[in-house]
Amino acid sequence: MTDTKQLLEERKKRILDAIALEKPDRVPAVTLGNAFAAKVAGMSLKQFVEEPEAGYKMLVDVFSNLGDIDGTQQAHFNPYLLSPMWNSRVKIPGRDLPDDSLWQMEELELMTREDYDVILEQGYEAFSARFQHEKLDDPLAKLGPFMESVPGALKAWADRGLPVMALGVVTVPFEALCGGRSLRAFVLDLMQIPDKVEAVMETVMPAMVKEAQGFMRAFPDVMGVWVGGWRTASQFLAPKLWERFVFPYYQQMVKVVVDEGVIPILHFDAKWDRDLARLRELPARTCVLSLDGATDIRKAKALLGDHMCLMGDVPAQLLTIGTTDEVSEYVAALLQDIGPEGFILSSGCDIPYSAKLENVKAMFAARG
Asked: What is the total count of domains within the chain?
């Protein structure tokens, strides 16, 4: 075994030990921050989107030189991926925005209540194909070069001895429907026509499961997959709505991922404090709960520390406007309070585009 392959296996084991709640030789640290890396490298976001091979090579070069890390959360990224996931339009740098402006999701009511009937009559796959063509400008058609670059990205990370934790994102019907309807309109739907919304979700879910299974089977060596949660966070919904329209679908999707032999990485942005205890109903020592700084990670440790691995959660604002000493102190407190078992150090969600380079280096250096 070459030194690089040995290093790759050592780092992968460190991550897997953390997920299994075993005590690793040290707390693993992983990275995530596509736009930030582009800024560090002097690559425009337009080029990052349009030239995926150059993009992943840049990511590997930037992060492998930032400090002693154990891997990356994801191998590569393209903002067109966001559009079909949320049934929303995405503004692209160099197309809709200046070359170095961060991609943005548009909050528009692109789906109507009448579309619910179409989904129930024709199925979600047929609806989605037409909807993406008519309302989203065919995002999947623009992803060909990116998808062709994924194997190269995985190899590039491995060649540096850095495992990739997750490849791709799956989610639940709430996120797709809420994105298409817009938050305000969808919340009204939940209150005014709840039975119809539930029937639509029951139609959407099998299509999402089929897509998730197909993706994971296309990449059989993948370690994990993100199970994304954004507008499904507890802070946005009353308990009765969350219990009916959110959590049962996460239970189903997590089971699908686990049954494929893949690790569910619960990428849960926003505040989930109220319902953290419910996550004990997911498979033990199997999932990773990735937090972004809004959820109380110490509460999560108290409720879930013997059940699932936690990942995070150095906040975006600290990396952006904090000092290196403040970052180091925050990380030291995390290591003491959350680690060493069942903890993976990372940023809360992405390292922000505006993060200070010295703060990101301090985050990894503080791991020791």
From this structure: 1
Instruction: Confirm whether pTM is higher than 0.90.
Output: yes
Write down the pLDDT at residue 12: 96
Q: Give Cβ neighbours of residue 89 (< 8 Å, ≥ 6 apart).
A: 83, 105, 106, 108, 110, 135, 136, 137
Which tens digit of pLDDT belongs to each residue from 255-305?
A: 999 999 999 999 999 999 999 999 999 999 999 999 999 999 999 999 999
What is the percent of the chain where pLDDT is above 70? 99
For the chain, give the secondary structure using H, E and C: CCHHHHHHHHHHHHHHHHHCCCCCCCCCEEECCHHHHHHHHCCCHHHHHHCHHHHHHHHHHHHHCCCCCCEEEECCCCHHHHHHHHCCCEECECCCECCCCCCEECCCCCCCHHHHHHHHHHCHHHHHHHHHHHHCCCCHHHHHHHHHHHHHHHHHHHHCCCCEEEEEEECCHHHHHHHHHCHHHHHHHHHHCHHHHHHHHHHHHHHHHHHHHHHHHHCCCCCEEEEEECCCCHHHCCHHHHHHHCHHHHHHHHHHHHHCCCEEEEEECCCCHHHHHHHHHCCCCCCEEEECCCCCHHHHHHHHCCCCEEEEEECHHHHHHCCHHHHHHHHHHHHHHCCCCCEEEEECCCCCCCCCHHHHHHHHHCCC
Question: Could you tell me if 310 and 304 are in contact, meaning their C-beta atoms sit under 8 angstroms apart?
Answer: yes
| Mean pLDDT (10-residue bins), the chain, 368 residues | 86 97 94 97 98 98 94 96 96 96 96 98 97 95 95 96 95 98 97 98 98 92 94 96 98 98 97 98 98 96 98 96 98 95 96 97 93
- Rounded distance, CA 199 to CA 106, Å? 26
Domain that holds residue 175: 3-365
What dihedral do alpha carbons 276, 312, 339, 171 form, nearest 10°? 50
Q: What is the CATH number of the domain that holds 81?
A: 3.20.20.210
